[in-house]
Write a structure and sequence with these properties.
The protein has about 400 residues and is α/β, with parallel strands linked by helices. It has helices at about 5-10, 50-60, 85-100, 120-125, 145-165, 180-185, 200-205, 205-220, 240-255, 280-285, 290-305, 315-325, 340-345, 355-360, 365-370, and strands at about 20, 25, 30-35, 65-70, 85, 105-110, 135, 140, 170-175, 225-230, 260-265, 330, 350-355. Strand 1 (about 20) and strand 2 (about 25) form a beta hairpin. Keywords: Flavoprotein, Oxidoreductase.
């Protein structure tokens, strides 16, 4: 890992700060603040704290920040404090997009349906699954979605994307990862359907392809359309390269997406696969209601596996996609140093996504450009994960976002 006093800190890579097109929009550099649930949407409302969170990232030098997570419908929320991107919230979010734009940055809305990850008791409404199965987040059995319900999902994605345009967003990111609804349809472990939406790799990709098509029809060339896309679910019998590579080729051939942001893991079955680092179990337990905390004491270690943190931990998988695709790709996962950024760009990735590094230091991109830092301050403790219940922040910062 590079030292902050190293030569690379004095001579930042010029390519990292060269503007690059993302579909119809142009980013001033190659740094994107990846979606991190902010925990600042009580009852799904756009708050001053949410606006300040993204304004700070924009002021810190990132070319684009991502608002997460915006549900396409009430049933698609993760829980009751998740925003539904309807017309009323779109009007409220205009203050956020204007604030980000004032700092010469762009802003993206991540939209999706939580599927089996949705907490139905908190939402007080049912959720959807490719096939009938038990879900711990849903706290019970979730019935297989009907074809009529799937058409409503496709329609809801289109409507939410249109609201994002009305709110002034420059890009829309479709959530196709982490065990959310579209991701669960990809998975042979979860999707046991025998109709046009299940079976082989092509049929399991059908819902996501229709969603991408509908969103592009709704927004045209007004905004960029990207997808957060699972390369590997991190579970036995799940979505892996033998499925994810051909699925990515299908999405590329359809031509509706401007980029893929490459990720992995499952909020439903293996969440630490896309975080990496020690599991903050004590902090999780302390943040939960008493009964949930008791459950975590009993089964938490089985739910949350430990994966040692490694710089650029998704790069080996992502290289397979760079070799197979020509469309723009966003490298995500443990990007903390300018050396990693330079490596990614040299290998043909157009952008890098950063999350925890910017929670720790939202001004990091400015420091990279000025040559005053070559690596971030994040120590990869993962304790920020447990702060999503009262406002996501780095616990080592004196003044959380």
């Amino acid at each position: 890992m590079a030292s902050k006093s190293s030569t690379s800190a004095q001579r930042p890579s010029p390519s990292a700060f060269t503007p690059m097109a993302l579909g119809p929009v142009r980013l001033k550099n190659r740094f994107i603040k990846a979606a991190t649930f902010e925990g600042m949407m009580p009852r799904g409302e756009a708050t001053d704290e949410l606006i300040d969170f993204h304004t700070e990232v924009a002021r810190g030098g990132a070319a684009m920040t991502t608002v997460a997570y915006c549900a396409i419908s009430p049933g698609g929320r993760v829980h009751r404090d998740t925003m539904v991107l309807d017309s009323r919230r779109a009007a409220a979010l205009r203050r956020l997009t204007d604030a980000v734009h004032a700092h010469d940055a762009l802003v993206c809305a991540q939209i999706g349906h939580a599927g089996l990850v949705a907490n139905t008791r908190s939402n007080r409404t049912s959720t959807l699954s490719p096939s009938t199965r038990l879900s711990a987040p849903a706290m019970g059995l979730v019935r297989a979605v009907t074809t009529a319900q799937l058409q409503a999902v496709i329609d809801d994605f289109g409507v939410a994307a249109r609201h994002a345009v009305d709110a002034g967003f420059d890009a829309v990111e479709l959530h196709m990862g982490h065990g959310y609804l579209l991701s669960s349809f990809f998975s042979p472990n979860i999707n046991k359907r025998t109709d046009q939406f299940g079976g082989d790799t092509v049929r399991r990709a059908e819902l996501a392809r229709r969603v991408a098509e509908r969103v592009r029809q709704e927004v045209g060339n007004a905004v960029a359309v990207t997808a957060k896309f699972n390369m590997d679910d991190g579970v036995r019998g799940g979505f892996w390269l033998t499925d994810s590579l051909p699925t990515a080729r299908l999405l590329e051939s359809d031509g509706h997406l401007d980029a893929l942001q490459l990720t992995g893991g499952s909020s439903l079955l293996n969440p630490m696969y896309y975080f990496r680092g020690e599991v903050p179990m004590a902090e999780f337990i302390a943040a939960q209601p008493r009964l949930v905390g008791l459950g975590l004491r009993i089964i938490g270690r089985r739910m949350f596996r430990t994966y040692p943190f490694e710089e650029a931990f998704f790069l080996p998988l992502a290289r397979q996609f760079r070799d197979a695709l020509t469309m723009p790709l966003i490298l995500l996962g443990g990007v903390n140093t300018m050396q990693t950024v330079d490596t990614a760009l040299a290998e043909g990735f157009e952008f890098v996504g950063m999350a925890r590094a910017l929670l720790r230091d939202p001004d990091l991109i400015n420091k990279f450009q000025a040559g005053t830092a070559a690596e971030g301050l994040c120590v990869h403790c993962t304790k920020c994960m447990a702060t999503i219940y009262d406002g996501t922040h780095c616990v080592l910062r004196r003044e959380p976002c």
